From TrEMBL:
HAMAP family: Upp_B. It catalyses: UMP + diphosphate = 5-phospho-alpha-D-ribose 1-diphosphate + uracil. It holds the Pfam family UPRTase. Pathway: Pyrimidine metabolism; UMP biosynthesis via salvage pathway; UMP from uracil: step 1/1. Keywords: Allosteric enzyme, Glycosyltransferase, GTP-binding, Magnesium, Nucleotide-binding, Transferase. It comes from Azotobacter beijerinckii. The gene is upp. Binds 1 Mg(2+) ion per subunit. The magnesium is bound as Mg-PRPP. Catalyzes the conversion of uracil and 5-phospho-alpha-D-ribose 1-diphosphate (PRPP) to UMP and diphosphate. This is Uracil phosphoribosyltransferase. Allosterically activated by GTP. One of its GO terms (molecular function) is magnesium ion binding. 5-phospho-alpha-D-ribose 1-diphosphate binds at R78, R103, D130, P131, M132, L133, A134, T135, G136, G137, S138, D199.
Length: 208
């Protein structure tokens, strides 16, 4: 499974701001969208193009457009919503499939409570967005259900990934590419990423 840690200075700077303990909900939201957009830029670098002729100001002109596969963005609720607008800013016509998962705080096992996938999922590239890849359980469960629905090409965009989650995902879904703004040190005894961002869902929604 290829993993790309995007070490662009803008991403590193913005992620540094997101790690501050005293960050406001407003700033966290804005930065999650911005880093989401920057990761989207990286994750779509190899999309195929095709030529077409359009009517330009001085007559016919040959231009390029993205060819082939349509895209669905898949935010994992809740925290994935925090990155969604950033992705849609770059891919405004993408359809959105929603997956709702919640980790049990004791067992860390992810439980699915919403699954609303768009049509023709078998013909779409899926870009899953979730700020955190911790144990990997939520991401693996989302990929399992996308594949079950027929999805063949899947990429995952996360703000912070833990080595433990990367290993689990690699074993479960070696064909899925991950784009992350950072690979952090480890998980703590409660399954939180260290140094991480804290509870991303609470920070996006202002619930703590
Ligand atoms: C968080 C996060 C991921 C998941 C990562 O969601 O947004 O979805 O944990 O952990 P994992 O890799 O160990 O599965 P959470 O379950 O806290 O729900 P929330 O987004 O609704 O807060
Ligand atoms: N979920 C979060 O929101 N943060 C973590 O560090 C791990 C899981």
């Amino acid at each position: 499974m290829p993993i790309h840690e995007i070490r662009h200075p803008l991403i590193r700077h913005k992620l540094g701001l997101m790690r501050r303990a005293d960050i406001s909900t407003k700033s966290f939201r804005e930065l999650a969208q911005e880093v989401g957009a920057l990761l989207t830029y990286e994750a779509t670098q190899d999309l195929p193009l095709e030529s077409c002729e359009i009517k330009g100001w001085c007559g016919p002109v040959e231009v390029e457009k993205i060819a082939g596969k349509k895209i669905t963005v898949v935010p994992i609720l809740r925290a994935g919503i925090g990155m969604l607008d950033g992705v849609l800013r770059l891919i405004p016509s993408a359809k959105v499939s929603v997956v709702g998962l919640s980790r049990n705080e004791e067992t860390l096992v992810a439980h699915t409570y919403v699954e609303k996938l768009v049509g023709e999922i078998d013909q779409r590239l899926a870009l899953i967005v979730d700020p955190m890849l911790a144990t990997g359980g939520s991401m693996i469960a989302t990929i399992d259900l996308l594949k079950k629905a027929g999805c063949k090409e899947i990429r995952a965009l996360v703000l912070v990934a833990a080595p433990e989650g990367i290993r689990q995902l690699e074993q479960a879904h070696p064909d899925v590419t991950i784009y992350t703004a950072a690979i952090d040190q480890r998980l703590n005894e409660h399954g939180y990423i260290i140094p991480g961002l804290g509870d991303a869902g609470d920070k996006v929604f202002g619930t703590k």
